[in-house]
Amino acid sequence: METESLPSRGVVLAATPLGNIGDASPRLVHALEDADVIAAEDTRRTRNLASALGVEIRGKIVSNFDHNEDKRVAELLDAARHTAVLVVTDAGMPLVSDPGHSIVAAAHDAGIPVTCLPGPSAVTTALALSGLGVGRFIFDGFAPRKAGARKAWLESLKNEERAVCFFESPHRIEATLAEAAEILGERKAAVCRELTKTFEEVKHGTLSELAEWSRDGVKGEVTVVIDGGHETQDPEDVLALVQQRVDDGMRAKDAVKEVAKNAGIKAGELYDAFIAARSD
Questions:
Q1: Longest dimension (CA), the chain
Q2: Is the model's pLDDT at 233 over the cut of 80?
Q3: Does residue 182 surpass a pLDDT of 90?
């Protein structure tokens, strides 16, 4: 089937492979070859992508990354008035925690057409692989770097019933998961790393289990999905279940951890309630 031509003018967003070159769409291949102007997050990586696809870039390629995209708007907008400007990032869909917003917003304001060549996205790929209820979800970009801001962000998710998807640095993932377990309780989650690449890995478990798993270090690009919050039981309502396990010979902390996990309650809160009840 013949691939359609690029529009005569306007901004064209195009998703690029996350890692597996086979995910490049025929439309992307044609666009890289046919575009008069390509705005790339990293010009070197875009040229490498084109080379791997057997494509010769004939148009002008300019850098368009986080720290210079605002300065590029006028130049790209002027080009988009009379030709197609292709916008690509290093991997995945432009604008999704990647450059592209400035030129798209300006094009809309100027009445210049904007279209998209859909394709790979780490967000939707991770959601599909998570095994969680993701019919309703929110995407929060990168988790905050600073501890105080990260804690406030996690606190804001306490009553969030939708699944939460976000990106995280491999150097901070263990701390973020541990704090999430402390604040959100034993929600189920999935850590997806190196999606579509040779060493792709998807790890499922509760937040505390995943924090423990990541303690030895995680490599590569990481996308996390956390299950939405559900109606939880009051710690007082499940104390009998804890006591039953203790009577059967289980250590109190182990009994609390098991019951808290099943009830969606923070283990610390349930343990405090159990100790208080035994003191009465």
A1: 80
A2: no
A3: yes
